[in-house]
Specification:
This protein has 420 residues and is of the alpha/beta class. It has three domains: 72 residues; 180 residues, Rossmann fold; 64 residues, Winged helix-like DNA-binding domain superfamily/Winged helix DNA-binding domain (Arc Repressor Mutant, subunit A, Orthogonal Bundle). 41% of the residues lie in helices and 11% in strands. It is built from 18 helices and twelve strands. The strands form two sheets. Strands 1-2-6-5-4-3-7-8-9 form a nine-stranded mixed sheet, with helices on both faces. Helix 13 links the parallel strand 8 and strand 9. Helix 4 packs across helix 5 and helix 8 runs parallel beside helix 9. The chain starts with 8 loop residues before the first helix and ends with a strand. This is DNA processing protein. InterPro entries: DprA, DprA_WH, DrpA_SLOG, WH-like_DNA-bd_sf. One of its GO terms (biological process) is DNA-mediated transformation. Belongs to the DprA/Smf family.
């Protein structure tokens, strides 16, 4: 049972004042607290003494008078702490997560709604694109369910797309999930996840380092990602474009010595290029959640069949992801050869009429093409994703196939055409 540190009114006010001090970076604040102990002691020091420890800028910031809204903020914080399930953790609190203390710049205050114990449990982050394809959302939920069934806490950022699917997957398994958010703990962003945030607060934990009332700002989310990376043993990137916040989380996790995993996808899908880049740079390619469990020595979920042993794959020593673009090799000049004729399937594709852009399709066809994504799917899968009547679905599939937007594969599978 975690025990939190009681805070007297003066100490709480001192913590809040230092946490809100403009220009006082977490690393500098930590140095001041290490030198003088309690935050009240820091505020009682003369400028020269503080400057000798953390520099003149930090000393100016720490001793600056709080703004006129400080008293209302303190009052709101006291009211928030009084609500059931809400906890404020300071750097000096014994319940403050040890993994965050290992960071060079741990948040001075953590606002937590829900189960504090999950911040100390074994955890894996599942992150990815906000504009996730249907297949990526399904993969995120599947990975999260399996990880949660193995008693691992699933950590993500409450964003649309992969994050939301990961949280829901863990909740479906009645497992623990932690949402690290980029707003104040009294706000929910995006608003569409209000119900999900309520579920997480009841059965998991919402965590924020931002003062109450802080709205969503783009600069907050990369900073939030460092907390996600610090709380976990590994990060699973399900889907990501080449410029993605998920790649920031992966890079930070790698710098902290965490495992980085990435799911591969179609070479034609823009949202898989970030994952493929991570794999090229040394991240572990995973196709099943059991591979993540194996890498982390987390065991199998109850009742699960053991992962198949192929005999072809030797995991070998852990690879550190450099997250650098590999050097280009000199282009090789190949000997001139007579080109062989393309296979029959390629000749057939070459005879197709030009593919019309998706905007020229009807609403049902565009919806079905979006549901198909860039991974093969059966009629049953597409029916679940679109809720289309069977006759409408079959007719729309035929329309898309004739227009060159998808190909029918053996076994009742459909896949988006390479040019679509």
């Amino acid at each position: 049972m975690l025990t939190t540190l009681p805070l007297c009114p003066g100490e709480l006010a001192a913590w809040l004042r230092l946490a809100l001090a403009r220009g006082l970076k977490p690393a500098a604040l930590r140095a001041l607290l290490g030198a003088f102990g309690l935050p009240q002691n820091v505020l009682a020091q003369p400028f020269a003494t503080l400057a000798a420890v953390a520099g003149a800028q930090a000393a100016h910031a720490a001793l600056a008078e709080p703004g006129p809204d400080f008293a209302p903020q303190l009052e709101a914080l006291n009211a928030w702490r009084a609500a059931p399930g809400n906890t404020l953790l300071t750097l000096a609190d014994p319940a403050y997560p040890a993994r965050l203390l290992a960071m060079p710049d741990p948040p001075p205050l953590l606002y937590v709604k829900g189960n504090l114990g999950l911040l100390h449990a074994r955890a894996v982050a599942v992150v990815g694109s906000r504009n996730a394809t249907p297949q990526a959302a399904e993969d995120a939920a599947r990975f999260a369910r399996t990880l949660a069934a193995s008693s691992l806490t699933v950590v993500s950022g409450l964003a649309l797309g992969v994050d939301g699917a990961a949280h829901r997957g863990a909740l479906e398994e009645r497992g623990g999930t932690v949402a690290v958010i980029g707003t104040g703990a009294d706000l929910v962003y995006p608003a569409a996840h209000h119900a999900l945030a309520t579920q997480i607060a009841e059965r998991g934990a919402l965590v924020s380092e931002w003062p109450l009332g802080t709205p969503a700002r783009s600069a907050n989310f990369p900073q939030r990602n460092r907390v996600i990376a610090a709380l976990v043993e590994g990060v699973v990137v399900v889907e990501a474009a080449q410029r993605s916040g998920s790649l920031i989380t992966a890079r930070l996790a790698n710098e902290m010595g965490r495992d980085v995993f990435a799911l591969p996808g179609s070479i034609h899908a823009p949202l898989t290029r970030g994952c493929h880049g991570l794999i090229k740079q040394g991240a572990q390619l995973v196709e099943t959640p059991e591979e993540v469990l194996e890498a982390l020595n987390a065991g199998q979920p109850a009742g699960a069949a053991p992962a198949p042993v192929t005999g072809q794959r030797d995991r070998g020593p852990k690879v550190s992801v450099p997250f650098e673009r590999p050097a280009r090799h000199a282009r090789r000049t190949l000997p001139a050869t007579r080109a062989s004729p393309p296979p029959a399937t390629n000749r057939a594709a070459a005879r197709r009429p030009p593919v019309a852009p998706p905007a020229s399709l009807g609403a049902e066809a565009r919806r079905l093409l979006a549901a198909l994504g860039h991974a093969p799917a059966t009629v049953e899968i597409l029916a679940q994703r679109t809720d289309m009547a069977e006759a409408v679905l079959q007719g729309t599939l035929l329309q898309l196939e004739l227009a060159g937007h998808l190909d029918a594969l053996p076994g009742g599978w459909f896949v988006r055409a390479a040019r679509s």
